[in-house]
Amino acid sequence: MESPPSPSSPGVSKPQLKDCIEELVKFTLLSSIRGKLNTGLSNDYCANLLKDDPSNPCPTQNNENLTTEVSEGVPSYPLYKRLASSLYQSISSGALCVGHNEIIPVQEDNLLKQKVDEWNKLIVEKGPVLLTLLTKVDFELHVQEPFFSQLSDGLKTIEGRCAVGHYNRIKSGDILLLNKCMMLQVQDIHQYASFHEMLEAESLAKVLPGVENIEEGVQIYRNFYSEEKERLNGVLAICIEKPTSQLYNFMASILLGLSYGGVQRLLGFVQTMGTSSESLPPPPSVLLSSFLLPHNPNVKGSTLTDGARALAKHVNRSSSSYWGTLCGSDSEKNRVAVDVVSCLLNRCCWLNMHTVPPHGVVFEIRIKDGYGARWSADGTKFIGFLEPYMADGHSKGWKH
Q1: Which helix (H) or strand (E) holds 363?
Q2: Whole-angstrom Cα distance, residue 378 to residue 20?
Q3: Are residues 271 and 288 in the same domain?
Q4: Which range has the worst mean pLDDT, 15-29, 96-110, 300-314, 333-347?
Q5: Is the pLDDT of residue 144 over 60?
Q6: Phi, psi at 169, each rounded to 5°
Q7: How far apart are CA 291 and CA 333, in angstroms?
Q8: Do residues 290 and 266 share a domain?
Q9: pTM (2 decimals)?
Q10: Are residues 162 and 183 in the same domain?
């Protein structure tokens, strides 16, 4: 009979912030939604940062190396991963990661400059605290639900494990890092011959809250350890308590200080006159879907997309032929248009959610050379492509 999968031996190397920050941001946002932490962000906003996008056309975009610069492109969902990556870069460099304002000339905003200075001060003050707390960790453990939540809520104060590997090195006073986001301090270690003996000696409510009897408790542990492994190694009851100083408390204070504008900045946005700072970017899959909507849905045989029709207006405006050549069948034009918009979605380094008459709030992206595109705020309507900014652009028909 195959043995059940045992919990891995606790990690003994000092955890690094780059390996923990995603889970830390995720846990902080979830705790904010549950009313356990104050991030100053609305529940809907936090939920949208956590929302996934199974239809993401660029699924590898968020698998970026946190030791390098934050990637370009429209942030993939879940957005908290890009937020975590930018936070790590900001803490490592001692300054907030910002977008490329120089692509479009903007009037100097003293209020915005003051905000950026405050955000930088926040990063400099709070970032090193996270690093210092991580140096105090002696062991890393992973705990499954519902046990992790019970430990977090203080309902579960004893963690039972088979006495194997590095578990035997854990001692009173050690700091444990659970699931890369919560710290617990070991108060005592009790040794037993079996889980049954442990559950008899310790309070069942402290070891397995909600479990009604010892037999049921033993069966829970049997999901993780075979009888043979238990008999050969014995069992440890790790008595713990939660210190008041927690990584997620400092992460919550960082998010509280950043507020919507700072979070948006970390997601790669710039802020200009008319920026809607509480808005988040639409999922890339929604942007691409609206781009591919048929331009003439009621015309039989017409397959030209909204995106290809919009591109037709721009192909002759750039003297450098940036937009390429648009010719051939509808399907060929559609393919060229998809290549163009995919390049913009993946390479953009200037993102904004701002008011543009007569459309209202739009989502706008631009690459370093200034070319770009616009959608409605929710991404369900593709508005059109954009030429690089130029003085008197309208009067010149944006030809350059």
Answers
A1: strand 360-366
A2: 31
A3: no
A4: 96-110
A5: yes
A6: -90, -15
A7: 13
A8: no
A9: 0.89
A10: yes
pLDDT in tens, 277-316: 899 999 999 999 999 999 988 888 789 999 999 999 988 7
Full strand arrangement of the beta sheet holding 360-366: 350-356, 360-366, 372-376, 382-386
Q: Which of 42, 50, 46, 31 is nearest to 283 (CA)?
A: 50
In terms of domains, do 240 and 366 share one? Answer: no
d(CA 143, CA 151): 9
166 & 92 share domain: yes
**224 C-beta neighbours (distance < 10 Å), count:** 18
Token duo for residue 255: 């998010």
Residues 260 and 320 in one domain: no
Pairing of strands 175-178, 139-141: parallel
Domain presence at residue 393 = no
| DSSP class per residue in 221-269 | HHTTS-HHHHHHH-EEEEEEE--S--HHHHHHHHHHHHHHHHHHHHTTB
Phi and psi torsions of 355, nearest 5°: -85, 125
| CA dist., res. 230 & res. 165, Å (int) | 13
Whether the per-residue pLDDT at 224 is higher than 50: the answer is: yes
Is the same domain home to 249 and 303? Answer: no
Amino acid at 158: I
